[in-house]
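During the first year of the project, the team set up a workflow for recording each protein of interest as an amino acid sequence followed immediately by a discrete structure-token representation. This format lets reviewers and collaborators read both layers of information side by side without switching files. As required by the reporting guidelines, we include two representative entries from the current panel. The first entry is reproduced here exactly as it appears in our internal archive.
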Amino acid sequence: MELDKAIKNAKTNDQKAFNYLLDLYWDDVYGFQLKRTKNENDAEDITIQTFSKAFDRIETFKEEYTFKTWLITISKNIHIDLLRKEKNSISQVILKNNREVYDILDESPSPEDELITEQHLAKLLRDIKKLKPHYQEIINLRFFQELSYKEISQELNEPINNVKVKLLRAKKLLTEIIQKK
């Protein structure tokens, strides 16, 4: 498949075009993030988020730009956003009387938080059951059994890229179900 045709087809939600673009640019985006994060898991998570965001907004891509550059820019912005969130949530340093005092956030859940979490989980499970069985299975393997992509690939006897695309699609469909409520 030619790149221009793949992009055009992806804009019409052609799954084969998405797979082609993912296969073609996965290593580029992953390698870029691996250099930035120096952590394989973070690089993989950011790369998946990059393709998810890119595929959700593929209609905004302008042909006068290079697709790879567009993906790398999305990837870079996601990483910057994550760094900002991390910087703001871990701890705050307060200077008081010329000495440093660390104000560490207490993130342990209260009983109310635990009850709310249980209720949200029950609702989420009901929403997951509205998905097709193969999407339910891949969400279960990834998020509830916490298997790696490689382990899911072996479990389902499918290539890793197919697992990533299926998971991406499952998350998108689940988001649509949740937003309809």
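The second entry, processed by the same pipeline in the following quarter, appears below.
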Amino acid sequence: MNPIVSIQNLSKVYQGGHQALKEINLEIKEGEILALLGPNGAGKTTLISTICGIVSPSSGTVTVNNHDIIKNYRESRELIGLVPQELTLGAFETVWNTINFSRGLFGKKKDDAYLEELLRELTLWDKKDNELRTLSGGMKRRVLIAKALSHQPKILFLDEPTAGVDVELRKDMWNIVRRLKESGVTIILTTHYIEEAEEIADRIGVINNGELLLIEDKKELMQKLGQKQLIVEIKEPIETLSTQLSKYSVSLSEDGSKITYTYDTRGDGTGITSLLQAINESGLSLKDMQTTQSSLEDIFVNLVHDDGGDQNQHKNSKVEKPHAH
């Protein structure tokens, strides 16, 4: 099956020399939910804006359902719905008029039944005659989704859809996204909430400094995020690990003073208790202990420096971080 979006060697350099995207290659499958994770300024919005035809690429190609986004702009743009990060809505227009007008912009025939169904799906039907200025931030976010879906696109881009909304609305949004997927819409969302990607995505892409560092099945990436390390400092350095300790997933630092144990927080048990017992039985005295956990930033660095072991060791010696939220 051909990808619904195909991106090849895509780069974007803004005036002034800032390179927002660097040789991005990505294929998005029809009907999937793809989450693009990355910190602020990573290039997520530039990537989405380029695919949607808002930003011109410096080099490379993008096709949407085999339509080139520059040569076949109208055909490709008709297939796309975009929900921007900012709440860009007029103040005095009603909800109904806003989405009706948006549908007309794409040259679609009048279809009040579809728009009613859409507003009901987004819990906006009872607000259809309300002026936009009277709505809460969460309701305005729903109106933006209704606008993006008004012309029945095949692909929906959601740029930070739950930024600044409460937990209840965030969960509502996740349910809306799932239902859209069931109806055959391909969804690409940008987020820096790891739990958001974990909850709804099929695949996860990681972007940092304009580079696509990874595109991977969600379960595999989450397994990496679930890894922790216990670093045990011993009083008297040793040259090699005893047979007893070699049974565990441990490594010894170059100076022989630290034993590092990697374990999966999602497993049935960590094995720490039995490891500490084995250290004790080996006649070693403990000086200090600390744990570290992969943060999103660590994963970025580890991906970029995959063959640079020193860099990985440096990152893993950090003090424990909480989950990214």
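For the second entry, the following points were noted during internal review. The chain has two domains: 5-223, 227-293. Residues 307-325 have pLDDT under 50 and may be disordered. Both points are flagged for discussion at the upcoming steering committee meeting.
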